[in-house]
Hints:
With 325 residues, this protein is of the alpha/beta class. It has 11 helices and 10 strands. It folds into 2 domains: 15-198, Rossmann fold, CATH 3.40.50.620; 211-312, GMP Synthetase, Chain A, domain 3, CATH 3.30.300.10.
Amino acid sequence: xxxxxxxxxxxxxxxxxxxxxxxxxxxxxxxxxxxxxxxxxxxxxxxxxxxxxxxxxxxxxxxxxxxxxxxxxxxxxxxxxxxxxxxxxxxxxxxxxxxxxxxxxxxxxxxxxxxxxxxxxxxxxxxxxxxxxxxxxxxxxxxxxxxxxxxxxxxxxxxxxxxxxxxxxxxxxxxxxxxxxxxxxxxxxxxxxxxxxxxxxxxxxxxxxxxxxxxxxxxxxxxxxxxxxxxxxxxxxxxxxxxxxxxxxxxxxxxxxxxxxxxxxxxxxxxxxxxxxxxxxxxxxxxxxxxxxxxxxxxxxxxxxxxxxxxxxxxxxxxxxxxxx
Length: 325
Ligand code: XMP
């Protein structure tokens, strides 16, 4: 199995080329795996979702998907994983709601790298515990894509959640390892995955844990999740999901005074970030129509408990980063 993309390999940019790729990979996976079982950590992100759909096509119930909900997913994400993979594709899916484990460990931890380490470490622990309960697993599938191979030592580690226990001695199945992201999306569509899954914007592995600044509390995390869902809904309605590369809400751990029903009360600000970029190394700010910003502000401050201001971040990268962390 090669980890080098041959010069002769065509860019997969049509449904026909995607179908051809799928047929080749289905045959290759069947040959590699035989009648053995394969385990996959399914986050619901583009890469792991496409690998899951491809393997379901190739080996059906021999694939065991484990979805760990770390409690830091965006609104509706875990539900979509269950709907698409369990209900629609009839996958062998184990769903683990580990929200309490993660949030208990994160309580009081404010330093960003410490938060990332806790989330990454706990993810490995939860996945490892599940994997050890299963019998007869011989292979581990991973959503490694070509940039992961070019940028690291070939293991999907970068700074994402999804790193796996080092002592797991499984042979790897990595059917999209020679593809670039845009090709993975074309293949995902050809496999029938919903656009909302295949065209997802980038989302940090540690999820909303990055955007809930400082020490995470459940009430502020919920406020962030609800405000983010409103932003996404309104951007989609306005068609901005097609023109803006990444947009989200961050909520800092500070309160300021506001007024509601003629009473002063303390609330958090929700910060809107909406950027365009080609490589995430630099980013520009999108000009969002004022009327839409007003509407989103109105919805968030009236519908989301605990938020009393909405701010729009105008800082390009550099000097800011895309995420607030
Ligand atoms: P920054 O904040 O460094 O982000 O300008 C650049 C891009 O990387 C995304 N990002 C992540 N992606 N796992 C990921 O897969 C992560 O842990 C992670 N942290 C940041 C960020 O959303 C932006 O698109």
